[in-house]
Design goal:
The complex is a heterodimer.
Chain A (H helix, E strand, L loop, with lengths): L4 H24 L2 E2 L4 E2 L4 H7 L4 H30 L3 H15 L2 H12 L4 H6 L21 H23 L4 H10 L4 H16 L1 H13 L2 H6 L7 H9 L7 H39 L7 H30 L16 H42 L5 H12 L2 H14 L6 H26 L2 H9 L4 H12 L1 H17 L2 H7 L6 H8 L5 H29 L4 H4 L3
Antiparallel strand pairs in A: 1-2
Helix pairs in contact in A: 1-13, 1-16, 1-17, 2-13, 3-7, 3-9, 3-10, 3-14, 4-7, 4-24, 5-7, 5-14, 5-24, 7-9, 7-10, 8-9, 10-13, 10-16, 12-13, 13-17, 14-24, 15-18, 15-21, 15-24, 16-18, 17-22, 18-21, 18-22, 19-20, 21-24, 23-24
Chain B lengths: L1 H17 L3 H11 L3 E7 L3 H18 L2 E7 L3 H12 L10 E4 L1 H9 L27 E2 L2 E2 L4 E8 L1 E5 L10 H10 L12 H14 L12 H18 L14 H10 L4 E4 L4 H7 L7 E4 L5 E9 L7 H11 L2 H8 L17 H8 L10 H4 L2 E2 L4 H15 L2
Parallel strand pairs in B: 1-2, 1-3, 10-11
Antiparallel strand pairs in B: 3-10, 4-5, 6-10, 7-8, 7-9
Helix pairs in contact in B: 2-11, 3-11, 5-15, 7-8, 7-15, 12-13
The chains are: A mainly alpha, B alpha/beta.
Keywords (chain B): Signal
InterPro entries (chain B): SBP (IPR006059), YnjB (IPR027020)
Protein name (chain B): ABC transporter substrate-binding protein
Chain lengths: 560, 398
Amino acid sequence: MLRLVPPLTLLLFLGPIAAGLAGTLLPAFGHLPVLGMDLAPSDPWRMLAGAPGLGTALTLTLTSGLLSAALSYTLAVGLCAAFHDRAWFARLRVTLAPLLAVPHAALAIGFAFLIAPSGWIARLISPWLTGWETPPGFATVADPYALALTMALMLKETPFLLLMILAALNQVPSNRLMAVSRTLGYGPITGWLKAVLPLVQRQIRLPLYAVLAYALSNVDMAIVLAPDTPPPLAVQLLRWFNDPDLAMRFPAAAGAVLLCLVVALAIGLTRGIEALTGALGRRWIAGGSRGGSGTGLRLAAGVGGGLALALSLFSLLALGLWSLAGRWRYPDALPQSIGLSTWMRQGETLALPFWTTLWAGLAATLIALALVLACLEHEQRRGRALSQRGLWLLYLPLLVPQVGFLFGVQVLLVVARLDGSAAALVWSHLLFVLPYVYLALADPYRALDARYERTARCLGASPARVFWRVKLPILLKPILIAAAIGFAVSVSQYLPTLFAGAGRYATLTTEAVSLSAGADRRVVAVFAFAQGGLPFLGFLLALLLPAWLYRHRAGLRRIG
Amino acid sequence: MRIVKIMLAALALATGIGTVKADDWSDTLAKARGQTVYWNAWAGDERINTYIQWVGTRVQAEYGVTLRHVKLADTAEAVSRVLAEKTAGRVEGGSVDLIWINGENFAAMKRGQMLFGPFTQKLPNFKLVDTKGKPTTLVDFTIPTDGLESPWGMAQFVFMMDTARVKNPPRSIPALLDWAKANPGRFGYPAPPDFIGSTFLKQALVELTPDRAILQKPVDEAGFAAATQPLWAWLDALHPALWREGAAFPKSGPALRQMLDDGAVDMALSFHPGEASSLIAEGKLPKSVRTFVLDGGTIGNTHFVAIPFNAKAKEGAMAVANFLLSPEAQARKQDPAYWGDGTVLDLAALPAADKARFEAIQLGVATLSPQELGTALPEPHPSWMTRIEEEWLKRYSR
């Protein structure tokens, strides 16, 4: 039984992605039999090239994607280099997780509330400081260079990269390396960059590529924050795909292929830069410069990290405040009144998307958890860990742009009459939940002291009994944390919900994004806040439940 | 071949109308009970969403129909979905039961034979509709509805202004250009295909084009250039004076009115003459906001609901369409406290009790009287809108 799970997991995963990619590639070259249309192979590309604003759309995609990934990476590495020796740094893992759980759309909406010309920051400093009696005319959201989108992407991705570096640090002997480099006279930052980073870099390569792919192909954050005449490429593709003129699906498919190529090229470029930096870095390392105390760098990283944290927190605070606000006219710094009236009025509207979000998230998380646990248990009984190639396969849904294969998947679902079914919705979420659950759980599972198992086996327990009675209870906390991460990923899914749900399933995410196009800020805030709050509750539960369950078992509370 | 098709269509039409019987409707209601109707409707305005939700509770009570609002950012999404289903050969059990629709989306669905019906004659409340006084309830953007869509509301294009900052509103399209130049950055319109943005472009076109009659016919390429040349010249002159110099556009009508509330612009656009009053009452616009129309009249139209050919819950959808035409639903919709959208019913012909519902409605401080609203200008043929949107994107989306 158990040995069927890994191939089954891969099939569940790669089959539809491959089919979906094929379903995108065929129309990109003029073949779309389902719709009874056939064009010459070059026609879709001609349509794409002739589309108004394509150059700008592509530029927006490239600048926001590459710049945000570079900034997140720099900030995450900078923070680690600057503060790895601080006591609080070790506890960062627990603090960062909830921040990571904030769905993209909620953060984007909150960030827009914060930085818009009529946003909270402008309200706080106007008119007494700025003289802006009316909101300033310059663009801070939907700005022509997509800087707002770039910033928000950076805010969202930095905690993820930071967490991934922290996880990688557990697998390299960083303490010993740092001790040696210190005795050799290296400054703390230089020492970390020279001795630890090269080892960590290999481990965070895939997460970095995932960040890059997401930044280049995201739709929900771009809808909220990017300009829209024209929008970035991924949003433009979605528009074409929804055009009542079905012929527009051809340039949409060609554009999706183009976006996949862009992501592949960007990943290649990053790999190239990494190799180049590695080569140059070796000379820098061998050069032997010790570096000073690094106060300047530490200050820069501290200011950057603090600013990012503050912007994220205030974005969420802005959501909360708007959801409670009565009349709040520009340039008042605070609402004239505070109350629950918007929540009361939206209660009924909120209920259905809330339950949909909840059951879809729970179902996808539970299935992912079962599959991942079975895979990990199988791997332990076989004594063979997932290969590097296997890891790539697992990362595939995170590396291929969602629009690249969801188009094809939707056609498949329509043909199979599965579109708009609960199964399709849960499966489409599973695709993205599974990799994260695996990433979160693999290390703690493998790190479990093998002596527990051996002891139990010696006492006559079967492998199954060991799994249920020994491993699961001990690993309860990491399992719940992995589940909370999986649930948060499911909550934040936008495109998969649209495509697999055929519009029938509204989640807090789809509601928040569609409302963000112009509905009352209070209502948008209610939905976005609920969207952000749900994963947070998941994390709270994941932290509190083991503490409560094991309140009489001091030994079990320490693990995880 | 073509003649055969037309004859078949005529036959279908004739039999469709021919079979109206009184107990037909009770049959329909019996089948409707217990059905779930997925109503695909634009959801960019939460007051309308709240109204739709109220309809849901009422049709549940009245007909035992469960209503689900599938929230669209653009009606074209639903059209595209039905089209995809039709092409994939799904002729029944489709995912869309009811669509809020008009204009080019209706034209596309009618042309593609993607609509169920004719069904409006079967709705008992349809006879309350003022088809004589409001001819657009039967002709949607010059396209005859042929009973394939049921009227829901009357819309007329109006401008909102903040009288704290606008003293003398421009009363014509050329005057609007002068006003914008005198007040740079204080006016903006949503980019098409947002329907408020597209309607604004049509409003300008109707006023600027040399021969209005041509707009009532399908667009032809030769005529298009001549008819729209003044529009592009006017837009070229207007854009530098717009909010953000026309480099960015408000996302939607509701986004624009939020900007009016913020004071980021001095005017906003609306399709519902009662919307401004309603927003003032809710504290979403300053009390100083008023509405105005242009001296030459503004575009008016009717919006409808239609049922796709492959809808799963056709009877339930008809029950909902019928409820939407009830004096109860129409009066609530016209009330600015809820929505402020004009009724399609013939008030003079209503029984006294129902008439009283409408007479009790407070129009609100910023709502123009029917006399002040003036005559509604007819919508151009839908092909004009499609072509203008395309051409606009080519020119201004770079």
